[in-house]
Amino acid sequence: MELVNGQYTTSGSDLIEIANEFGAPVYVYDGNKIVEQYQRLLNAFKPINIKVKYACKALNNSSILKLLKNQGSGLDTVSINEVHLGLKAGFEPKDIIFTPNCVSIEEIQAAVKLGVHINIDNISILEQFGHLYGNSVPCCIRINPHILAGGNTKISTGHIDSKFGISVYQLRHVARVVKSSNIRVNGLHMHTGSDILDAGVFLQGAEILFDSAKDFPDLEFVDFGSGFKVAYKEGDITTDIEELGAAISSRFMEFCKEYGKELELWFEPGKYLVSESGYFLVKVNVLKQTTATVFVGVDSGLNHLIRPMLYDSYHSIVNLSNPEGKQRIYTVVGYICETDTFGWDRKLSEVHEGDILCFKNAGAYGFTMSSNYNARFRPAEVLVWNNKAQLIRKREEFEDLLRNEVEVEL
Ligand SMILES: *Cc1c(COP(=O)(O)O)cnc(C)c1O
Question: Which of 31-45, 137-151, 349-363 has the lowest mean pLDDT?
Fold first, then answer.
């Protein structure tokens, strides 16, 4: 977002005006930022024509899905309902990969019926898949290379205790199952977590995958998942995507020669594509001075943005209503009856009740993780695109809270 003539805007749209028009709290996404990130990723891997499968669990509003589809993106899905959302948004089944964890064989069968790529992450399901389909339906195998990435174990998926993927040490067993049922393995996949800092770690995982590839003669693609880190605050170290792109591209071309076939290289970024596009706007309800701190209480809470409480994540906060005000120290909290702190000891332009605050980097894992806790409505979503701010999801209403309740005689 930019400060233009004393007003915070994104792609020319005034954020306070958006809050006034659609009400607070509201999630705002800047489509231009999403497209920018998508193009930057493609450019970074330029010599190779990588295929991007947007990990839609980060933000799955249909308008966002369509926007990315129009850019040429595919989709990474983790539940059958995400597959349905993708198909409804117009993605071709061949452009969707289903990468669930610990789902039933019935859910896998449903995805096979829909014609999407299947990614299998445990040997039990691989066996059942083989019994059902033999070589009539190909599948991809998710390997856990046990590369440790990321500072927070909750978002790291590669460690030895992780429930994700089939351990690289079990590949002999995988080979037996594949051979017995004549399974056609068309892809190898890894996704080691969401916090990879440098090309070195990524390449380490890549080498393990490349090494495993020699046991699978029918590969069509290799999928490196995601793990691109974005900056949540000034000075944050981020993945140098250009450096990573150059390193991986040249190593991948070499690998294809070794393998003897041009394979596709897939990535599944979520956060990288949508995090920075998102702003979560809330209104200040109360200023509360205690003996130890000044609390800013806003009309939202962990029901709308749970990342700070769930992952200790940091979201920059800006007081949109007072851009030039003097800086003071506040602790910003929500209205949920639970400790729900958005940020301790933050420097904000002097805050008044009624001001609009903005949480940055709210595009990924914001709305999709929201809930109705405390019987609060989930917020509205607005997309800024083509110089317009448009509502893409209405705020919930009271009826929404009761929709699935069943009344009984008491
Ligand atoms: C969550 C997830 C991603 C996306 O992770 P980000 O950190 O948001 O980029 C990619 N692939 C799989 C399989 C995932 O579960």
Answer: 137-151
pLDDT tens digit sequence for 302-330:
999 999 999 999 999 999 999 999 999 99
What spacing in Å lies between the alpha carbon of 287 and ligand 1's midpoint? 38
22 and 67 fall within a common domain: no
Q: Which of 56, 102, 256, 337 is catalytic?
A: 337
Amino acid at 295: F
Give me the number of domains the chain comprises.
2
| Pair 376, 395 in one domain | yes
140 is an active site residue? no
Asked whether 226 lines ligand 1 (CB < 6 A), one says yes
Residue 382 has pLDDT above 90, yes or no: yes
Distance from the CA of 269 to the center of ligand 1, in angstroms? 6
Residues 6+ apart with CB under 8 A from 35: 67, 71
Do 228 and 99 lie in one domain? The reply is yes
User: How far does the centroid of ligand 1 lie from the alpha carbon of residue 99, in Å?
Assistant: 10
According to the model, what pLDDT value does residue 389 have?
98
Same-domain status, 255 and 137 = yes
Q: Are residues 160 and 304 in the same domain?
A: no
In a domain? residue 63 = yes
User: Does residue 408 fall inside a structural domain?
Assistant: no
Assign residue 263 the CATH number of its domain. 3.20.20.10
pLDDT over 80 at 147, yes or no: no
Q: How far apart, in whole angstroms, are the C-alpha atoms of residue 373 and residue 308?
A: 16
Q: Which atom of ligand 1 is nearest to the CA of 272?
A: 9
CA distances from 145 to 142, 170, 184, 220, 256 (A): 9, 11, 21, 20, 20
Question: Which residue from 79, 122, 268, 313 has its CB within 8 A of the most atoms of ligand 1, so it is best to mutate?
Answer: 268
Domain boundary among 273, 300, 331: 273
Give the C-alpha distances (Å, rounded to integers) separating 293 from 28, 296, 331, 332.
Answer: 30, 10, 7, 10
